[in-house]
Fold these 2 entries.
Entry 1:
Amino acid sequence: MTATAVAHPNIALVKYWGKADADLALPATGSVSMGLDVFPTTTSVTLTDRREARDTFTLNGRVVDDGPLVRVERFLDLVRGMAGSDARAAVVSENTVPTGAGLASSASGFAALAVAAAAAYGLDLSERDLSRLARRGSGSATRSIPGGVSVWHAGDDAGSFAETVPAPPMAMVVVTINDGPKEIGSREAMRRTIATSPFYPAWVSSTTETVGDMLAACAAGDFTRIGELTESNALRMHATIEGAFPPIRYLTSRSVAVFDAVVAMRADGIEAYATADAGPNVVVLCRPEDRARVAGALDGFGAVIESGTGPAARLLRSEDP
Ligand code: DP6
């Protein structure tokens, strides 16, 4: 049995930073994101007939046999547990995020893997249950199952899933900046933030409130409010992370220059708002009609990529040869 699925990355408007339960991958707060329509990840899962000792994982034509394979195997163990199967699998994934673009590939990666693996192992899961499953691979993957703008609810295992919410038309411009120091991964950085940043409790309480405000702004179609909340929440996340010990700093001087350029754009009457994840790249939220102008204005800061709002993850085919 082979099943193939596609999923896209998402960029959080209200960030997920910190787990309430690491085993179940339950977040400390809710979060809200916009799915992108660029950089799909296409993944196929083929069940192997023989009882192989291990799964295999091929990413962009290269056989992976270290950390990422262990993460894929742990994820497949969950799927096998749900399906009552002990069949091993061959996972082949094509990730179109250009190398060095700095967009996390774990969101689209685990969303595509969740959809393909569920189908290959014969599980008929709802979008909600696929989202809960993707969560166990990587938190942000929860939000790459539904399309458009989505909220990922904080809650217990049954209640922590993502779903699409009504929102006005929006676009994003990704500005790629590759001059940062070697990054510390988000998993480890979250742990250190929780353990050592005195600002973390305030991050949790303020973000919980911001999720509610963001959902209200989305429902009202209030793009200006969505943008203001997005930029504010991103800066609060980075302030919280910078408050860890030893400190973690993801934004470089070039990242900050893009934030400044976005402020200047607003002074010129273009409604644009900046956000950034666990790295130096900056993503700029704007209205769809402004995206080419925003991309043009930010061209000098790094490679720019424009994106509209993306589709839900979906099964492309499932065949039993
Ligand atoms: C800064 O989803 O990569 O992008 O759950 O440990 O796999 P794990 O973390 P991950 O963290 C994403 C953090 C972020 C904010 C966000 O996407 O909400």
Note: Residues 2-166 form a domain with the Ribosomal Protein S5; domain 2 fold (CATH 3.30.230.10).
Entry 2:
Amino acid sequence: MKLSIVLPTLALALAAATSFATAPAQAAEPIVIKFSHVVAPNTPKGRAADYFKKLAEERSHGRVKVEVYPNSQLYKDREEMEALQIGAVQMLAPSLAKFGPLGVRSFELFDLPYIFPNKETLYRVMDGDIGKKLFTLLDAKGITGLGFWDNGFKQMSANTPLHSLADFKGLKMRIQSSKVLEAQMQALGANPQVMAFSEVYSALQQGVVDGTENPMSNLYTQKMHEVQKHLTLSDHGYLGYAVIVNKKFWGDLPADLRATLDQAMRDTTVFERKIAQVENDEALAKVKAAGTTQVYVLPYKDRVAWQQALLPVHKAFEEKIGRDLIQATYRVAAQVEKGKTTARANKHKAAKPEKK
Ligand code: SIN
């Protein structure tokens, strides 16, 4: 081989090697997480999604980009679950009432009327063995659960007053896609209508349905108070979220990045639970100030009557949800109650030292 041919080739190879070594490192494209949800940005879930984006992008130093799509902009309720499973989006936080159509009916535990006497019981259920068991059920669906977010207890609204049980008779009430919620409305004598969240405002406005149930933050940010003359503060049921990701996407992330995102999610969950009640209290104040809706606080005696009418729903769903899960939730509630009683007794003792 002639030296004149070898030399330029060698020079090119050397030049390429040198330029490779000295070129500024090309920034890798960030991994995109599309996070789709159906509520407004100024709700507990909306604010938490934005907070997670901030933490994830900062702490990953740009290796991850989180695109948040609020207000059903990208997908409606049912579509978003399918989109997650096929990998068209990577992260969602659906209401716990929307897992039934996926074939995991045990999540409907959270829809049982009056099952959570307080938030402490709720958080213990979410963060303990019950929550863990629920997340294992998602595995077979190609979904990984990352955390449970709060919203709040639900209130009833309609264009006619909802005071006694008789007031529900024949009313068309919009519900989420949960068989428990269907049974709940039937037990009240109403006619349940499943509907996507994005369609509720216009359905109420046009009289397609007469009323609905939701925590105040959702009711206010969707302007439902503009088309609902009556609101009953009943706290008869609960609405919260499971933050979920596409299992393959999550499993394929580099381990260090996944750990960073896991921690960002834990911190976001703490943030979310702190703001949930505040957002709901503020929303109630704004609804009252708007003056479009008469707000009625359900008195204790009626609350008892509602409870009596609704408790048979627990028994009716033992098989579908799992008797063990329902019983375990009752036990958690009893433990919380016992703890409160002991704390009260100790406080009382400390305040009144025994006479010698
Ligand atoms: C949500 O909070 O994600 C929507 C709840 C609903 O559909 O009523």
Note: The longest strand covers residues 143-153.
